[in-house]
Design goal:
CATH architecture: 2-Layer Sandwich
CATH superfamily: Transposase IS200-like
Number of domains: 1
Order of helices and strands: EHEEHEHHH
Radius of gyration: 15 Å
Distance between the termini: 33 Å
CATH topology: Alpha-Beta Plaits
Number of helices: 5
Structural class: alpha+beta
Shape: globular
Helix content: 25-40%
């Protein structure tokens, strides 16, 4: 296939298994840089990522040749393996099955990035966007 032009922006959110509050500051210090680097290996670009103790938000560009589900599944699995087996900072870190995803226009990128950047503040103030926060609440399957 020749060169393909694309601008595909996604806001993706996924939670820890049973929404356990296990993403500590220490884990964040490994988690977010790892996600950025791993996404590059999958030919994706993470434009912003942040979260709170039980879920993460990612603004990501995924090429049209890749499946969103496949990329997010690989990122989630890679993080769990990295934290549990390679770094051994956790023993049983895992994600809830599934994720939430919305596509958005490039003009909306600054607002999406602000929302992701300010996750802790939004949750502390009760000022969250329900559509991106209520995903998978009834899903206790492990991934």
């Amino acid at each position: 296939m020749g060169k393909v032009f694309y601008k595909l922006f996604y806001h993706v959110t996924w939670a820890t298994y049973r929404r356990e509050e296990i993403i500590t500051e220490k884990i964040e210090g490994y988690l977010f840089p790892f996600l950025l680097n791993k996404a590059k290996r999958f030919n994706c670009e993470i434009l912003g990522c942040n979260g709170i103790s039980n879920h993460v938000h990612v603004a990501i560009v995924i090429p049209p040749s890749e499946s969103i589900s496949n990329i997010i599944g690989k990122l989630k699995g890679s993080v769990s393996y990295f934290l549990n087996k390679e770094l051994q900072v956790t023993k049983d870190f895992s994600w809830q099955a599934g994720f939430g995803v919305l596509s958005f226009a490039e003009k909306d990128l600054p607002g999406i990035l602000r929302y992701i950047e300010r996750q802790k503040e939004h949750h502390r103030m009760g000022d969250t966007k329900d559509v991106m926060e209520l995903f998978g609440d009834n899903d206790n399957d492990k991934e």
